[in-house]
Specification:
This protein has about 325 residues and is of the alpha+beta class. It has two domains: about 90 residues, Phosphorylase Kinase, domain 1, CATH 3.30.200.20; about 200 residues, Aminoglycoside 3'-phosphotransferase, Chain: A, domain 2 (Alpha-Beta Complex). A hairpin with a 7-residue loop joins strand 1 and strand 2. Helix 4 runs antiparallel to helix 5, helix 5 runs antiparallel to helix 8 and helix 8 packs antiparallel against helix 9. The longest helix is centred in the last third of the chain and has 27 residues.
Length: about 325
Amino acid sequence: MAVFTSVTEADITAWLANYSLGDLAELQGIPAGIENTNYFVTTSNGRFVLTLFEKLTADDLPFYLNLMSHLARHGIPCPAPVADRHNRLLGELNGKPACIVSRLSGKSVTQPSAAQCAAVGAMLGQMHSAGQSFEDQMLNPRGSAWRFEASQQVQRFLSPQDAALLESEVELHAKNTLTDIPRGTIHADLFRDNVLMDGNRVGGLIDFYFACTGNLLYDVAITVNDWCMGADGPSTGSGLDEERTRAMLRAYHSARPFTAREAEVWPLALRVAALRFWISRLYDLHLPRDGEMVHAHDPEQFKRILQNHIAASRTIWL
């Protein structure tokens, strides 16, 4: 989340006239993140989140909005898009595609406990199960072809050692794809800042705009890589915390059982999940686009996570 496109109180007041959401009480920009423009919108009828899409087009967006509506109807706590007076989920504001969704309870955590990891694992399993009945499809925009192209663009900014590591990992995963494992709709970005916790309960899963059709295990690996790093965090070079990793995986398994093939390819899933975010953070750091409030995440974090997985003598599983 971020603010690239300014929205004034006059802008949002005029836009809200298309909705039955009451009168504007407060408008507040959300500075974190790097993909879309986001504001908290409080009206006389409740609290909402306004999103203006900076990269995705109006043709791209029905998949994401329909997915959130589908998951919300199936009991997954995620933002529910609000339809306007003409029953449309997507509008336009200041020249950008825009939507407004329900604002959920809870807050993100920086140092999750094993119990919180278990809650997130269970909810991710439930989300994957609910997504099996969602019929729309979306290719992973951060898949193998993107990894190759983006890695080529950032190579010139890297040391010879990092460039060699990047090239070898991209080649490895191009040759060793995750095959013969369950697929479905995945979140693909379920980091700590995209989960709202209410104590040990998941209050909401947010920011579905990297969601796509893909390997369910890949989604689990993305989540584990962020939620289950060692107590001192990846900046110290520590690997996965065993207690939190097992708690998340076992809770997920209770909601959506893993297959034997998923257990076999788990080490590769962890590595390709780390590679994806190392590349995207390198790209955002070295090839940024202009914005009013932008926070680029440190790519070194995911380089270290990837190196930890490569060096690990064993991989933590159930």
